[in-house]
Amino acid sequence: MSTPSPEKPARVTTSDLRQPVARFVKRTSDAAKQISTSAAAPIKATAGKLAAFKREVAEDASEAGGLRAPLVEFKDVHVRFRNQEVLKGVDLTLYRGEFLSLVGPSGAGKSTLIRALTLEHQPESGSIIVAGRDITRLRDWEMPYYRRKIGIVFQDFKLLPNKTVWENVAFALEVADVPTRDVRRRVGVMLETVGMSHRKENFPHQLSGGEQQRVAIARALVHDPKILVADEPTGNLDPVNTWEIIELLHTINKTGTMVILATHDREVVNALKRRVVTLRDGEIVSDQEKGTYVV
Amino acid sequence: MISLYRIIIYGLQGIKRNLWVSTVTVFALMVTLGALTATTVSDAALQSRLKDLRERLSYVIFLNDSASEAEIEIMRTQIAQQPGVATVGYVTKQEAFEKFRKDIGSKSDILKEFTPDNNPFPRELAVRFSDLDSVDTFNGFVLEKFDPLIFDTSYTKNQDAIGSLLSWSRTVRFAGWVVIAFFSLYAVSTLFNTVRLAIFARREEVDIMRLVGATRSFIRGPFLVEGVILGLIGALLTVLFTYIILYQLPGLLNQNGSVDSAQQSQFSYQMTRVVSYLRDGSGALASFGQIVMLQIGMGLVLSVATSAAAIKRYLRHG
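Predict the joint structure of the above. Result:
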C-alpha cells in the first residue's frame, strides 16, 4: 500500500462546508433582513431581475402568489423499471410556489418520481395530475407541449454540446415557435439573471460545472414554467458552486415558481428549512413541512 | 414558417459544428455513389461491347452464280422478315473481290490472276441478328427454302463462335447483375451504418431536444436538412470525380510518360470506349447528363432515407 501523495488535493469534509452553509442560512433565515444587508445585495439584484422577467413574460403574474393551491398530485403512482417496481404507490400533493426537497438514499425512487413527472417514465398505474390534467393520459404528440410548461435541470446539465450558451437557452423558446424578437429579449434577460451574459458565445465544454448548471437553469426558466424540476442539480459541483446554485433555486422559488429538488445533500436540505419528502424503497416514509434530512 | 427557417439554420449549424462526422458521411456517400456508378457504367460498357460483338458476327450466304437477281431479291425480302434478323446486306461479285483485295493487301501477286471476267468470288447476303438465339432456326429455314440458290453458308464455320458468344454473353450479363446487386448492397449498408453511427453519437442531443419540448418533426427536421445538404455535396463531388476519370484522366495519362505505355494506352482505350459509348447514347445510360442526374438523385434519396431511418428509433416514444 502506498502512502498518499503530499500533492494530492485534500478531500472536502463536512467542516469545509460549514462556512458556506452558515452564509447561506444567514441569507435565507430572514428575507427582510437579507434584502437590507449589503452582503445579500447580489441575491437582491438577481431576485429583482427575475421578478421583472416574470412580470414581463407571465400571462398571469398574480398566479405566483396563489399558494396552497394544488398544482401537482401523484395518486397511487406505481412505476416499474427493468422488471423492478421502483415506485410503490406514491401519493403526494405539491402546491403552487412550494419548494420541495425530495430526499432518500440511492435507488429510493427520487429520480424515478421526477422522471414520471417529466414523462420520461410512464407509470404502470396511478395518475399524475398537473394543473388539473392527468398527464399519464397524454398522447405522444401532446407531450412536447406539456414539457414546455415545466423546467427541468439535471445533474449532468444536459446542454446541447454543439450550441453556444445563448443558443442553448434560446432553443427552449425556439421549439415553442416564440418569435425571434421575443427570443432575443427573453434570453438576454435570463442570461443576465443567472450571471452568464459574458459567456453567451461560449460552448458548454468551455464552461465550468457551475457555469453549465447556471445555463441549464436559465434554459429551464426562460419560458417561465410554473414548475422547476431539479434532479440532483448540485451532484457534480464543488461546494462553492453548490451554494450558488441553491441560492439561485431559492431566488427562483421566491418569485413564485414551484421548485422540486431531488438531492442527496444533507447540508443543503437542512439549510433550506422547507418541505422535505423522504423516499425509501419506492415509498414515501416522511413528509415534513419544515423538514431536515433524516435518512 | 419560422420553424422551417429555424430547422434549416439548425441543419446548417449541425453540419458546420460536426464537421468531422459530416466529412465522413460525405465520404461514405461518395464511395457508395462511386461504387454504384462504376458498376453501372462498367456493365453498360460491357453490354455495349457484347452488342458490338454480336453485330460483327454475321451469317453469310454465298450464292450460286446461276441464281438470278430476281430470285435473290425475293430471298432477301423473305430472309429480312425472319424473327431475330436485324439487317440483310447484299454483296456483289465486284464488291466481294474488292473486299478480298483489301484483306490480302495490294502487294500480293495473286491479285494478277483475277480480272472482272475471271472473278470466282460468289455474291453474298450478309445477315446480322438482333437476337442470336434465333440463328439455329434461321439456318434451318434458309437451307430448306433456298437450297438451290445457295453455294455455301458461313454457319458451319461460325457455329462454335456463335454458341460460345451466346453462352458467354449470358454469363457476363448475369455476373454483371450479381456484381451490381452485391456492390449496391455493400455500399448502401456501409452508408447506412455510417449515418447510424453519426446519429447514435448525437442521440443525447435528441433526448435533450425532446425534454426541452421539441416536437418530433422539429427534432427530425435538422437531421433531414443535413441529409439533403450532405447528399448534394457527396453527389456533386462524385460527379466531379466521375468526370475527371472518364474525360480528363485518359488525356492526362497520354501526356504523361511516367506510366507504362502499354498500360496507359490500354486504359485510355477502354475509357475512350466507355466515353464514346456514353456519348453515342446507345446504352442504358444515354449520356453523362444522365449519370449526373442519377448520382444526384441517388445521393439525395440515400442520404435522406438513411438519416430518416437512423433517427426513427430515437423518436419512437414521446
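The CA atoms of residues 216 and 317 of chain B lie 10 Å apart.
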